[in-house]
Amino acid sequence: MKQKTNMVMPRWSKILIGAGATALLLFGALPETNTNQVLADQPAVSVNWGTYEVNAPYLKPQWSFAVSNWNSSYSGMESKAALAEDGRVIAIDSKGQLIALDAATGKSLWVNGNSWRPMLTYNQGTVYGALNDGRVCAISGAGNLKWRTAVKVEGIQSIEPNGDTIYVTANMKLYAFNAATGALRWQTEEKGLEYSAGFGGLQLVDGVIIRTYIVQGALSSSQINAYDAKTGKQLWTRFKSQDPIAIRGGLLYSVQDSYNMGNYETTDDGQIRESLVMHAINARTGEVKGTRTYSWTSKFDPTQSVQVGINGAPILDGDKLYIFQGEKLAQYDFSQYKPNAAPVKTWGQYLKDVYPLYAVHGDRMLYRNYNTGALTAMKLANGQVIGWQVDNPVVQTDIYDNGLYVGQSDGVFHAYDYATTKPIFSVKASSRYFGPTLKTNDMIIVQSKGMLQAVKLPAAMK
Questions:
Q1: What does 224-272 look like in DSSP terms, one character per residue?
Q2: 400: alpha, beta or left? (left if phi > 0; alpha if psi -120 to 50)
Q3: Count of alpha carbons within 13 Å of 322, Cβ hemisphere only?
Q4: pTM
Q5: Nearest CA to 62 among 454, 444, 438?
Q6: Angle, CA 119 vertex, CA 114 and CA 124 arms, to 5°
Q7: Residue 109 CB: number of other CB atoms within 10 A?
Q8: What single string gives the DSSP state of each residue in 394-450?
């Protein structure tokens, strides 16, 4: 008879066995270590970037109104489909009617006709516009028709009131109408095959109308033409001359286009010599009365087809002439030209992916980013570079006084304090497409595709 062996287990062993049994009851049998585990799909690459969000309170528009401001032929906003003046908003509604709204309340003040084109201009209480058939009209402040031209202008580019005349541009054609009656005074057309484009933005000086064209030949360049303001007769033309940067004492100051074709003159240390030539042209005769030359040197890398730095047309702000000279921005005294004179002041332009907006506001030179559309500014007081932070690509930017307004591609509209760059408020627009922001009194009008939204400015931005 076998003797039973009485196995006595240590207390700690009993505890472990009990715990293991409990685990089996709760979770089931544990898998063997060599069993393949089934996992969720794993990405081949997983990378995260931080981002920025504009943090400003959202404001609700005071009112909204459906309008016709979209051009389906090129899928873009019309830039002259609405205007805001004297506490009113003038626009073309969804039915093609010209309508005036109270800017503060959105209340309709008057409606006039239909079949209006998005080509509106305002001058001294009168609204000027064009019908779809090309006739130009003048509407009084009360909404009444003052006159309608008999002439139909095809392809209107601009309506430009100036004194007692309304000038209308249409590519190669230029019209002059009596501002009081709408009667045609004269019209002219450049029919030469060398002309490829004509522009608005006319200038009137000493009874002469100055207009800029693009002219093609062996080389294409801008050209300014002069016309007698009373008769429309062409007085003179000047090829390779840009739109005048200034008109003073009957003289047009025009930068001359230059073509170096890559043949740069270099200095002993390998820099290239560059210059900007500006003619002073008699507005009446076209005679060159003087020439200014501003010269400088800049770094040159022969291995690069595009050189580092920022270049572009000059800017005249009062008597301060700014010239973009690659890695340098230079300021000259326009009122006291001296040959070979050094700049009054210079700043380093160590910026990337930007181009100049040709505007100085609040003692800041403005630039725009090629990739994001966002604005950058250089303080002319100390050269510091600043910006207004956005969180999506910028579609539209406007500046009024100390307010900077931005419409983004995500359909969000932001308002900033221009001086501090701080975001003040945001608005959710009806579309990702924006047109020029309008302002009258303490109201701003946000233009997006098919819609106007009116926002009352906070006290901080009035």
A1: EEEEETTT--EEEEEETBPSPSEEETTEEEEEBP---TT--EE-TTSPE
A2: beta
A3: 26
A4: 0.87
A5: 454
A6: 100
A7: 16
A8: EEEEEEETTEEEEEETTSEEEEEETTT--EEEEEE-S-S-B---EEETTEEEEEETT
3-state secondary structure of 8: coil
Identity of the amino acid at 350: Y
What are the pLDDT tens digits along the chain (462 aa)? Answer: 444 444 444 444 444 444 444 444 444 445 555 556 767 899 999 999 888 899 999 999 999 999 999 999 999 999 999 999 999 999 999 999 999 999 999 999 999 999 999 999 999 999 999 999 999 999 999 999 999 999 999 999 999 999 999 999 999 999 999 999 999 999 999 999 999 999 999 999 999 999 999 999 888 999 999 999 999 999 999 999 999 999 999 999 999 998 765 667 878 787 888 899 999 999 999 999 999 999 999 887 777 766 678 888 899 999 999 999 999 999 999 999 999 999 999 999 988 899 999 999 999 999 999 999 999 999 999 999 999 999 999 999 999 999 999 999 999 999 999 999 999 999 999 999 999 999 999 999 999 999 999 999 998 887
* Dihedral (CA of 179, 180, 181, 186) sign: negative
Rounded Cα–Cα distance for residues 57 and 422 (Å): 12
DSSP state of 341: P
Backbone φ, ψ for residue 435 (5° rounding): -110, -175
> Domains of the chain by range and CATH?
191-257+277-290 (2.40.10.480)
Contact 423, 412 (CB under 8 A): no
Query: Which three-class secondary structure state does DSSP give residue 290?
Result: strand
* Token pair in block for residue 51: 């981002």
**Continuous segment of H or E residues that includes residue 130:** strand 126-130
Q: Put residue 187 in one of left, alpha, beta given phi > 0 → left and psi -120 to 50 → alpha.
A: beta
Measure the CA–CA gap between 404 and 377, rounded to whole angstroms.
Answer: 12
The contacts of residue 360 (CB under 8 Å, 6+ apart) are 315, 317, 320, 322, 366, 380
CA–CA dist 148, 126 (Å, integer) = 13
SS3 at position 14: helix
The secondary structure of residue 460, as a DSSP letter, is G
The two three-digit tokens of residue 201, written as one number: 């933005």
